[in-house]
Amino acid sequence: MKNDSGKLLRFTVPERVNHWLVALTFFLMALSGLVFFQPLYYPLNQLFGGGTWARILHPFFGVAMIFLFGGMFFRFWKVSLMTAADKEWLRHLREIANGDERNLPEAGKLNGGQKLMFWSLVTCMALLILSGIVIWRAYFSFLFPAVVVRFAAVLHAAAGVVMIALIMGHIYIAIWTRESIGAMLYGRVRRAWAKQHHPAWYREMTGGDK
User: Fold this and answer.
1) Which residues are tagged catalytic?
2) pTM
3) DSSP per-residue letters across 114-146
4) Do residues 36 and 55 make contact, with C-beta atoms less than 8 angstroms apart?
5) What is the pLDDT of residues 132-165, one digit of tens each?
6) For the CA atoms of 98, 102, 104, 106, what is the dihedral angle to 10 degrees?
7) Which of 20, 55, 106, 122 is a Cys-bridge partner for 199, taking CB atoms 3.0 to 4.6 Å apart?
8) Quick one: CA torsion of 176, 182, 185, 186, rounded to 10 degrees?
């Protein structure tokens, strides 16, 4: 695909809107969930009008997240499929952390780390959905034995903690990699940035320009 503008289109408007709505919903879901995770976080209930409302709203934030994250899944699952080059890219994580990208295999639109993040988040979402249904007292909990509800509560908390950690890592890396946040805000990146970080995608977008 040839792009004649000075910059390359990395994310379309629908992709960016979808991403930021997921981000907003994630924070609502995480903050309302933390209220019941540890007493230290209980004061967060004031953001939602008190503990009762936090408990009522949390699962509905989750429902909104299912639809919004589902939208992201169907937009990005094909481009997130792991290739041999992505697995090789992941073997160079220590070099990447040290700022050495000389021996990296060429990345496409998403690199191996971004794809691993995507599938890790998908796994967490699947666990949160399944366990969340089981522990949703207003509608479903009475359908399951108590031992299943208790196990689901532990699984739900564990998946939530992992997902929060992954998102914090995602935010840190986005700040660390210049232009990443700009790409998700404005959609476009400089050609030099694309050529450095995603050379295979750069060639695809420029029709093979070096």
Assistant:
1) 170
2) 0.89
3) HHHHHHHHHHHHHHHHHHHHHH-TTTTGGGS-H
4) yes
5) 999 998 889 999 999 999 999 999 999 999 999 9
6) 140
7) 106
8) -160
